[in-house]
Structures are given as C-alpha cells and as structure tokens.
Amino acid sequence: MRSVVVRSTQSLGITAQALWQLSTLSAFAYRPMENNMPVVRYLVNDVDASLPIYKSLGFKLQNRWGPPFAIVKRKSLSLWLSGPGTSARKKLANGSTPEPGGWNRLVLEVKDIEATVAALKEQGAKFSSKPIKGPGGKQVLVEDPSGNPIELFEPRSKAE
Predict the structure, then answer these.
(1) Residues in a beta bridge with 139
(2) Backbone region of residue 53 per phi and psi (left: phi > 0; alpha: psi in -120 to 50; beta: other values)
(3) What is the DSSP letter of 55?
(4) Model confidence pLDDT, tens digit, residues 88-113
(5) Which residues contact 99 (CB under 8 A, 6 or more apart)?
(6) Is 2 within the bounds of a domain?
(7) CB 72, CB 61: distance < 8 Å
C-alpha cells in the first residue's frame, strides 16, 4: 500500500514509528489539520515534463519551488510533484530509494471519458487500455510521463 489518509494519529492508534514508516512510502496522502484539504504526493522523474498532463486534467499550478518540486491543485485536491533532488526522493535508511510508478493512483472523475482520452492522446499520453465499462461507469488508466497511473472515471448515467 502506498497511499494512506491520516486524520489523527491518536484516534487511529498509530505510533510515531509507524507514522514515520508510512511517510517513507512513495505516495503519501494526508489531511493537514490547518486546512483539512486532501494532499497526494507523486514522485516524478521530471516536474516540467509532468505539468502539461496535469494541466490537461484540470489542475492549476499553485506553487513552484525550483525545478524539482511543484504543487498543482484541482478543486480541493493538492498534488505534490516531487522530482529528483527533493526530500521525498532521498535514499532511505534501509538503502532503498523511492521511485515513481506503482498501482495506487489518483482517480479523477470526468464528464466525457472519450473526449478526455482523445485530448490526452493528442499530447502523447500513454494508456494501459481502451476505456472499460464496469458496474459504476467507465474507467481507463493513463500514465504521467514518470509512469504514475491516473484513473479517469466517468460515472454511469442515471439512464443506464
């Protein structure tokens, strides 16, 4: 598991050590108490190469802290893009180095999955398949330039 929501370490019974272990995972989501806004961190290989796909998905650049780090925002979600040179990419005590990718992912609701896929394909985005239909609607996985998966989800219409 790479993505975790933490509201209060006391109410969850999480020790400081366990919280530290969670913080070493490559995508760590939490809700800061001061603004109660969801935040996800994605590790990327190149922040500049990653920004266009997130802009196409409705994110706006909120902060840029030099070449290796940017914060983009979509509605109430902040996404931290951490490139090489950020603290999130430093070698860990066990010798491992956090890397992008994996199967945990952002899920972004879209109104028209076919139109969204077409717009992203024009920019060279890579998809794992064509959109598939499930009981709740349609979904497809697209990768950002570093290989982080993003699920696009179009909910089933009431008429279906």
Answers:
(1) 132, 153
(2) alpha
(3) H
(4) 888 888 889 899 988 889 999 999 99
(5) 26, 43
(6) no
(7) yes
Domains contained in the chain, number: 1
Q: Which of the listed ranges 28-37, 50-59, 96-105 does the model predict with the highest average pLDDT? A: 50-59
Q: What is the DSSP string of 91-140?
A: PPTTS----S--S--EEEE-S-HHHHHHHHHHTT-EESSS-EEETTEEEE
Residue 46 forms part of a structural domain: yes
CATH number at residue 121: 3.10.180.10
Domain of residue 52 covers 9-155
Tokens of 142: 């697209």
Q: Which residues pair with 30 in a beta bridge?
A: 39
Other beta carbons within 10 angstroms of residue 67's beta carbon come to 12
Contact 116, 110 (CB under 8 A): yes
Return the DSSP state at 67: T
Structure tokens at 148: 């982080």
User: How much is the pLDDT for 36?
Assistant: 59
Task: State both tokens at 24.
Answer: 């070493």
Give the least confident one: 13-17, 87-91, 109-113, 142-146: 13-17
Q: What's the pLDDT score for residue 43?
A: 94
Neighbours of 68 (CB within 10 A): 18
